[in-house]
Amino acid sequence: MQEEHVEIKVGIQHVNREIVLETSSTADDIEKALAKALASDGLLTLSDDRGRKVVVPAASIGYLDLGEENARRVGFSGI
């Protein structure tokens, strides 16, 4: 069984540390959510695989780095 995952890095203006999370959302879905948040001057809400939710004002986002979609194996390898 494999699940697709995307690593997201969000750079916030005037903040030295970026937010990093891994999600099962697609890169296209994340791009659309960012575009919608920017157009409405609203909030970008992202959820990771552990249930953590990150909410960022769209106007304060410096950059969004979307890693490649990759498959992560779930289960045990040969024992």
From TrEMBL:
Pfam families associated with the record: DUF3107 (PF11305)
Name under which the protein is recorded: ATP-binding protein
Organism name: Microlunatus panaciterrae
